[in-house]
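Example record

One chain of 106 residues, shown exactly as stored in the release files.
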Amino acid sequence: MLESVAAAEPVSAVYHVVYEDGTAGRIEVTAGAVPELARPGCFVEQEDYQARIKALQDLEAAVLADEEATQHGQALADYTALTLFGLAEETARRLSGYDGPGRPES
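Predicted structure tokens for this chain:
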């Protein structure tokens, strides 16, 4: 008789959320209950969620590229100043962190 009673698999559902601060979340619940959001936001379709994630990834890549360009420019400026003060190129590179081509001759 026990063989005929199968254990019921929990039913799960996935909800996608975009919060008011622009972040996105994916919530998986069991037993079919609609989750309560811990902070202001709204449930969205999976396509809207994926579009928001892509936008956040693109924004992160742009911010990182900007920071890298800024750091490179600062390293070049430091390297140039150090070599103009007469430090050896190898020392100027090590101190400045600059790893690009040598400074242009004036």
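Notes: Strands lie at 12-19, 24-30, 41-44.
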